[in-house]
């Protein structure tokens, strides 16, 4: 507008209109303004006033160009439309998509509140190794790498569980870690090979104490994320996090959603479980436990829309959990599901070294039969248990999936700043 320029200045805190007059900033600085384009970075100084239209505006008295954008930004109105490019060039996505930027700021707030809640319960945050000789604590295929200094093959951790329980043995009674986990598995809307998990252990708790803690933590995070409500909208449904959450036993849930066809007795028989897989049209599984996991996923998991604790898991798919006193085929374990997503997994920890050794031996046989997701036995962990681990409850919470729920995202890649992608030439 001749000797006057109006511009929008935007950063992570918001947007502000600028009013620049040649007579105020000088001829050279004004010439710089005429060369500026969308995406350039400037620093300004001045005083505030309201324009004739009532918009809060900064009357610029001095300015300087801080950085020049050599790459053009995407269209102002349509943003970055190429989905793969959004993830590959997240820095551009964050510039042009305020809602994307807000999702990641919300993620940071959620994790900060998670820490505050846990710390207030008397837990201590620790850091355990990412590089391990044996990656245990879960059924997953690990990444391997070579450590030149030791001339040894090592594995990236698939869980923090075993080292955290070693700390329980060592006398740190309440301990947790929010850490990166690595599993050499598939990539889809709910899985990324690198992800964040909270693992927490409390001596002298059992699975029921952990369930109460878990429910209170999730309810608190929902409250923070929604600004004081106990409901969220997700996938066109309203999810209620009003306590108490629903509870159902593992085999009861399978029977319920199969109209009574798939009973506990049938599923605990290896041949019966294999027959059920065939009936469901699924490929055969390398082990009885693997078959049960696939049956549960196909029959039950997607039906669990409202927050639901699935209780009393079979022992054969829970190698680190304590058996129920009145039913040794089951363990004191639950998983929390919501909108078909597994959010947390918790149990009373097995602290009997003889039982743990026997289960590791059974796992070794499963691994030898071809199930590559079964980890190698960690015999040093058995030795740790021989020094005495108090009765303990533990939990793992998938942070990324929880953030998906709390921010309304349907793909895990939308809550990971830099999700893993195929290398771009």
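Q: What amino acid sequence fits the structure above?
A:
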């Amino acid at each position: 507008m001749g000797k006057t320029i109006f511009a929008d200045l935007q950063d992570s805190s918001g947007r502000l209109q600028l009013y620049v007059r040649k007579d105020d900033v000088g001829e050279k600085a004004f010439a710089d303004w005429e060369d500026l384009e969308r995406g350039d970075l400037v620093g300004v100084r001045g005083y505030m006033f309201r324009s004739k239209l009532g918009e809060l505006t900064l009357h610029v008295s001095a300015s300087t160009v801080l950085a020049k954008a050599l790459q053009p930004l995407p269209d102002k109105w349509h943003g970055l439309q190429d989905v793969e490019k959004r993830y590959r060039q997240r820095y551009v996505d964050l510039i042009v998509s305020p809602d994307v930027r807000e999702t990641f700021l919300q993620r940071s707030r959620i994790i900060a509140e998670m820490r505050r809640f846990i710390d207030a319960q008397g837990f201590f945050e620790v850091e355990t190794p990412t590089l391990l000789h044996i990656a245990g604590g879960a059924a997953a295929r690990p990444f391997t790498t070579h450590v030149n200094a030791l001339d040894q093959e090592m594995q990236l951790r698939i869980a923090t569980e075993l080292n955290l329980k070693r700390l329980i043995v060592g006398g740190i009674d309440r301990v947790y870690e929010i850490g990166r986990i690595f599993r050499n598995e598939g990539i889809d809307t709910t899985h990324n090979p690198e992800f964040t998990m909270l693992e927490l252990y409390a001596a002298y708790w059992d699975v029921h104490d952990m369930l109460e803690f878990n429910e209170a933590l999730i309810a608190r995070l929902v409250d923070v994320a929604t600004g004081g409500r106990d409901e969220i909208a997700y996938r066109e449904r309203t999810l209620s996090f009003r306590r108490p959450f629903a509870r159902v036993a593992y085999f009861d849930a399978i029977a319920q959603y199969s109209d009574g066809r798939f009973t506990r007795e049938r599923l605990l028989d290896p041949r019966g479980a294999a027959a059920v897989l065939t009936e469901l049209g699924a490929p055969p599984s390398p082990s009885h436990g693997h078959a049960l996991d696939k049956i549960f996923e196909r029959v039950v998991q997607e039906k669990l829309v409202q927050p639901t604790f699935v209780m009393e898991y079979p022992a054969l798919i829970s190698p680190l959990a304590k058996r129920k006193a009145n039913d040794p085929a089951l363990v004191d374990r639950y998983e929390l599901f919501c909108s078909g997503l597994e959010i947390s997994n918790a149990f009373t920890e097995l602290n009997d070294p003889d039982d743990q050794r026997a289960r590791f031996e059974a796992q070794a046989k499963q691994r030898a039969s071809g199930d590559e997701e079964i980890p190698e036995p960690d015999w040093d962990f058995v030795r740790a248990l021989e020094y005495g681990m108090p009765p303990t409850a533990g939990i793992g919470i998938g942070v990324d999936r929880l953030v998906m729920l709390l921010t309304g995202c349907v793909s895990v890649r939308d809550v990971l700043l830099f999700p893993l992608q195929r290398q771009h030439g």
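Q: And what stands out in the fold?
A: The chain has a mean pLDDT of 94.
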